[in-house]
Amino acid sequence: MAFHSVFLVFLAGLALFSEAAPPGSADSKNPLVIKILDSVRGSPAPNVPVKLYKEAADGSWELLNTKQTNDDGELHELTTKERFITGIYKVELDTASYWKKMGLNPFHHHADVEFTANDAGYRHYSIAFVLSPFSYSTTAVVK
What we know:
Elements: H1 2-17, E1 32-38, E2 43-44, E3 49-55, E4 61-68, E5 74-75, E6 87-93, H2 95-101, E7 111-117, E8 125-132, E9 135-142
Parallel strand pairs: 1-8
Antiparallel strand pairs: 1-2, 1-5, 3-4, 3-6, 6-7, 8-9
């Protein structure tokens, strides 16, 4: 139970200290930022494959981009302001390949989050994931 309390405090702190990009900064051109933390090592999760999908009118998912997190466990170039139009999106992390590179056999193969973007006008989205081989959590800051 204590672990869950500490974990929730950590997520709240992550959300509190995440900042949206100021106008004119490099990240203002990248409206979607992904941050991934490895809870086993207690550090950022580098080289995690990430896919961005947009829901099509027929309910299928259109793959928009595939990239990997940098050494800081972050990904800033997944989409652009021009391509990030109103709609339903899915961010999918290939957690199985990440854990298998570390010699671990994970429970889940992917961690994902589906969300509605820009339904109230253009916004900047920071989505954070905390990973372990048997669970994951996510939180978001929208500004």
